[in-house]
Amino acid sequence: MRLLVTGGAGFIGANFVQLTVAERPDTTVTVLDALTYAGNRASLDPVADRIDFVHGDIADLDLVDELVSGVDAVVHFAAESHNDNSLAEPWPFVQTNIVGTYSLLQAVRRHDVRYHHVSTDEVYGDLAPQDPPFSEHTAYNPSSPYSATKAASDMLVRAWVRSFGLRATLSNCSNNYGPYQHVEKFIPRQITNLIEGVRPRLYGAGHQIRDWIHVEDHNRAVWDVLDRGRIGRTYLIGADSELDNRTVVELLLAEFGREPDDFDHVTDRAGHDQRYAIDAGPLREELGWAPRYADFRAGLSATVAWYREHESWWRPVKAATERAYTDAGERTISLP
Ligand code: NAD
Ligand code: TDX
């Protein structure tokens, strides 16, 4: 199979490309990535001589058309992906997540190429503590500019399936963690703070809940959907690992031998979603998927070890990322 992977220099995309090269020798991989602040060529170093890398924008219609004409399938990871950035400056999210997806859809439609769309559980909004988890029947109700643009891109895919018969599938996954995740995100930010001897930074009281999944489990599910998923269908991906943010910080503090209250509360995120949770029943039952990192604590330990061993990967962007948080107004707060 000839595969085009968009966003392959980002966190989940790079892990997907490495997994594919390691386990699917019959697949040839071309990566299309704009190398924004979130993209890093070094994340593809282990497979650099076994893939083709194209530095370009998914919204470039001519480039995308040419690349899509030469492949059998497209897996679309490229996106602006960070909620906090979408609150500071929404425009790149509209451009990449909506216009960029449009550009890909037109090309796969023209060349009748199989398409898989990688999306997020955030399109469903958030849950109250007693609500049942999200399923593929939950109504879309996004909260942030990020999740609104992801929701819009999902809607484009569904419309192209229905109106033009596109051979597409969608997946909406919960919060990923693992190697190569940018230090702006919650878990790598706190790990790298702790390596530097800085206290973790918890938004507000830290009662928000996320449903964590190891990136490798997400990517194995994407392959299951590519291999055996039903065209036109949406699959929810999650590993039944709901934890509140404060608990995650406490687990990380324990990894570093620090006291459980050795962190700072900082300014809360505007419009902060309370809880995400996924019902991955159809993925498990229909496609036989199951997470290999079913124990979040073990996956978190392995991730801490990875960041300890790969300082040269994250160090160059750490200081600027922390400065951006300070410039955006993040301050230590005391709770009543
Ligand atoms: P990321 O920010 O780490 O990587 C995004 C990649 O896309 C980067 O390499 C970047 O350079 C590239 N990119 C951005 N704009 C581009 C453009 N216009 N043209 C080409 N490339 C461009 O993101 P991630 O966390 O790896 O997320 C990948 C996908 O998975 C996204 O679609 C995201 O919405 C989705 N997702 C992420 C999570 C999560 O927890 N991180 C969970 C569910 C779904
Ligand atoms: O320093 C922090 N302190 C903190 O308490 C940061 C960066 C985050 N948080 C909180 C906010 C969230 O409740 O931690 C939680 C996770 O935050 P993020 O890592 O920013 O993830 P989230 O906003 O939940 O979105 C993520 O999951 C869904 C990804 O970034 C999205 O791309 C994906 O779609």
TrEMBL record:
<dbReference type="InterPro" id="IPR005888">
    <property type="entry name" value="dTDP_Gluc_deHydtase"/>
</dbReference>
<dbReference type="GO" id="GO:0009225">
    <property type="term" value="P:nucleotide-sugar metabolic process"/>
</dbReference>
<keyword id="KW-0456">Lyase</keyword>
<dbReference type="InterPro" id="IPR016040">
    <property type="entry name" value="NAD(P)-bd_dom"/>
</dbReference>
<keyword id="KW-0520">NAD</keyword>
<feature type="domain" description="NAD(P)-binding">
    <location>
        <begin position="4"/>
        <end position="294"/>
    </location>
</feature>
<protein>
    <recommendedName>
        <fullName>dTDP-glucose 4,6-dehydratase</fullName>
        <ecNumber>4.2.1.46</ecNumber>
    </recommendedName>
</protein>
<comment type="similarity">
    <text>Belongs to the NAD(P)-dependent epimerase/dehydratase family. dTDP-glucose dehydratase subfamily.</text>
</comment>
<dbReference type="GO" id="GO:0008460">
    <property type="term" value="F:dTDP-glucose 4,6-dehydratase activity"/>
</dbReference>
<dbReference type="Pfam" id="PF16363">
    <property type="entry name" value="GDP_Man_Dehyd"/>
</dbReference>
<dbReference type="InterPro" id="IPR036291">
    <property type="entry name" value="NAD(P)-bd_dom_sf"/>
</dbReference>
